[in-house]
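User: OTU domain-containing protein, Aureobasidium mustum:
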Amino acid sequence: MLKQFAARKLAEKEIRADDIASTLEPYKVVRQAAAEYIEANPNDFTPFLEEPLDYYIYKIKNTGEWGGQLELTALAKKYSVAISVLQGDGRVEEINPDADAEVKQLWLAYYRHGFGLGEHYNSLRKAG
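Assistant: Predicted structure for OTU domain-containing protein:
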């Protein structure tokens, strides 16, 4: 992925993959924000859930279970930011709540199997 970072002039900031939910308070705040947004906008999310909404919200708020596309979409909408997710093969998944508005762009690197705990995201920042 280093070539992909360099091509986009991005640098990686690693995020701990082990038990992050119980050790970093800002992470809990972000999980809470995603859960609250999904809970307040159920029609946007329930068609994509394989379990009851209340149980899904509970897991986001109270466990360290991996977050994915739904949580990123909720956060992009809640904070009015665009999130670009760089995949290992170079593809970029764009999550933009309002394509017509100029919003801050955040970058994440997505690792499908790069960590012992499975899927993982790291933050990307402008290099240099």
